[in-house]
Amino acid sequence: MGNRGMEDLIPLINKLQDAFSSIGQSCNLDLPQIAVVGGQSAGKSSVLENFVGRDFLPRGSGIVTRRPLILQLVNNKAEYAEFLHCKGKKFVDFDEVRSEIEAETDRITGSNKGISPIPINLRVYSPNVLNLTLIDLPGMTKVAVGDQPQDIEHQIRDMLLQFITKESCLILAVTPANTDLANSDALKIAKEVDPQGLRTIGVITKLDLMDEGTDAKDILENKLLPLRRGYIGVVNRSQKDIDGKKDIRAALGAERKFFLSHPAYRHMAERMGTPHLQKALNQQLTNHIRDTLPGLRSKLQSQLLSLEKEVEEYKNFRPDDPTRKTKALLQMVQQFGVDFEKRIEGSGDQVDTNELSGGAKINRIFHERFPFELVKIVFDEKELRREISHAIKNVHGVRTGLFTPDLAFEAIVKKQIVKLKTPCLKCVDLVIQELINTFRQCSNKLNSYPRLREETERIVTTHVREREGKTKDQVLLLIDIELSYINTNHEDFIGFANAQQRSTAVNKKRAVPNQVIRKGWLTLNISIMKGGSKEYWFVLTAESLSWYKDEEEKEKKYMLPLDNLKIRDVEKGFMSTKHTFAIFNTEQRNVYKDLRQIELACESQDDVDSWKASFLRAGVYPEKDQVENEEAAPADTFSMDPQLERQVETIRNLVDSYIGIINKSIRDLVPKTIMHLMINSSKDFIHSELLAYLYSSGDQNSLMEESADQAQRRDEMLRMYHALKEALTIIGDISTNTISTPVPPPVNDSWIPEVR
């Protein structure tokens, strides 16, 4: 055979197959093997039985092979068979082997002729075999019979491709001689995955059943319909022989006699027949293994390296070791604290690129959502003016006042300050929700210990709920402090003299002109009649809102000045997944083309809130729903005398100035209060007290009880690790300094039709 020293290679691959089959073949290694493909009743099973010299495969009509059978042939003095699923049991009676294959097939596929890609592993030890590993695959069929699924043809085809697509798989394409070879299903599917013909070996069966006067001489000589690796002809037992229990050894003798006596084949009898096929396959598989061994070794090594780190902690694992449990508990709690701090404070490693979370989300609540909620409450022009008017009149009582009363200013300011309580408490609630979400994300690493995760989440959530009360009390205290003394001597307060001169128009504080406040994509919602919805690149400055075709900002579509603009909420459309808000002109003018308002849509509510906060910075405020107030408003509110109007305007300016100061203070102090009493307190609690609470919450053993999934994962990983190490050791023992048979030159195989 020319490859002495390589005789251990096929048993080596058998060992590797066993090692990986025992761990569920999750190693994704393409081990070298030979797959037997062909149509139904092409004689695939007979070829395999001839190799073994025994009847051991199920027979019958229709699909008999319904699961892949990995058949490992091992040259051995004693003759017996073993199944991987029946470890330790030796089958000496080959009728029992057939029964076991049928029973194991039915166990997975049921008895309805369905198929399954889960292989059956059978190893046959015999003095009559050469070392070979073959996979017997279901025969290709066109029509479903009985209660088979209608797509049985595609199911079988997909299963075959699953095996033969791998570069490490040799393809034994079996075709009966009494059919048209040019339309062979086996050769068609082989060419599909092996267009160069490097892996395909042709086998012609049923040569004895050809019509009288015809032969396959030209095919077997590789002259007609050539294949790169050529063809080998075999003669199997007929159905009559099988039914009559004709001995396979006698059948092999008859096969030899057929080739020697047939005038068309006698000159090539030495290259025909089952024994030659077995030798050729042994030789080719051995060469194939030798060629793929270096790649296999490097793949095994890379898989071993990727497992090393994870396996390190499991190597000396003893489930009931109390010191291990204590150490694991300390490490888990410490890691939980580190992860929480990283998520809140931010960190370069393990950055979430999909969405904002933890500290970044809390930052958005503090600096976008909270200021927006504050402004939404304060800026309600008509209602404020009406309240000022009532306050002035009520302070004067029956008298007509000559001067603007400061008591009216104080009453209005206090009423506005009280309104700040709601958004401040809402800010606390939003931060708490985000904190609890962050705790849950951090506790994902405790999944190995479900009870520990549950207890940790309960303890930290209880702590946050306790701090919630203190934080809300402190936030309300801030508001009460502001209510307790109205400081009209504040350096930023405009005072009465300036308030009288100041007009409402000047009151709008704008950012630096032309300063870009925000850029981003928004969808401009317009009716289909006027062009339909479209995405544009929007640029918001302190003076205008412009939109462009794209972010290069070369092709400007429109520029909208911000004067007299306000924002209002818009309900999400029935079919729309986007969140929408609208911009309109308070003086009832068209905003864009002939539209009184334009609707802008974002992917999420967070984006909407963020854009609204940006518009606030540019001086575009939200509209307040005034329908109820207007209906209830008495007529005299709108017919003020000029003196009262001046007084209302003065107090309006004073209130605006003072509330601006309060807003600034609250915007600064509330996040600081939440940070101190809630977030920093939670960090300190996790670092210094969580462990003590866990110890006092119950038995450490039950707390550190592993989940079944984790135990299974550990066992699988260790099995995989040892299987890889064993495989590398086995490969290391093999010398690859051997003779290789060169691959035959290419042939013209364009006669095999393409698969459509």
UniProtKB/TrEMBL annotation:
Catalyzed reaction equations: GTP + H2O = GDP + phosphate + H(+)
Cellular component, GO, one term? midbody
Claim: Nucleus is one of the keywords in the record: no
In alphabetical order, the GO MF annotations are: GTP binding; GTPase activity; microtubule binding
PH domain segment(s)? 515-620
Question: Which intervals hold domain Dynamin-type G?
Answer: 28-294
Localization annotation: Cell projection, Phagocytic cup; Cell projection, Podosome; Cell projection, Uropodium; Cytoplasm, Cytoskeleton, Microtubule organizing center, Centrosome, Centriole
Pfam families, per database record: Dynamin_M, Dynamin_N, GED, PH
Leader sequence range is none
Superkingdom of origin organism: Eukaryota
Membrane-topology annotation of the record: Peripheral membrane protein
**Alphabetical UniProt keywords:** Acetylation, Cell junction, Cell projection, Coated pit, Cytoplasm, Cytoplasmic vesicle, Cytoskeleton, Endocytosis, Endosome, GTP-binding, Hydrolase, Membrane, Microtubule, Motor protein, Nucleotide-binding, Phagocytosis, Phosphoprotein, Synapse, Synaptosome
EC number per UniProt: 3.6.5.5
Q: Which GO terms describe its biological process?
A: phagocytosis; receptor internalization; synaptic vesicle budding from presynaptic endocytic zone membrane
Question: By its UniProt entry, which PROSITE patterns does this protein fall under?
Answer: G_DYNAMIN_1, G_DYNAMIN_2, GED, PH_DOMAIN
The GED domain sits at 648-739
Gene3D superfamilies documented for this protein:
Dynamin, middle domain (1.20.120.1240), P-loop containing nucleotide triphosphate hydrolases (3.40.50.300), Pleckstrin-homology domain (PH domain)/Phosphotyrosine-binding domain (PTB) (2.30.29.30)
What family does this chain come from, according to its entry?
Answer: Belongs to the TRAFAC class dynamin-like GTPase superfamily. Dynamin/Fzo/YdjA family.
What is the protein's given name? Answer: Dynamin-2
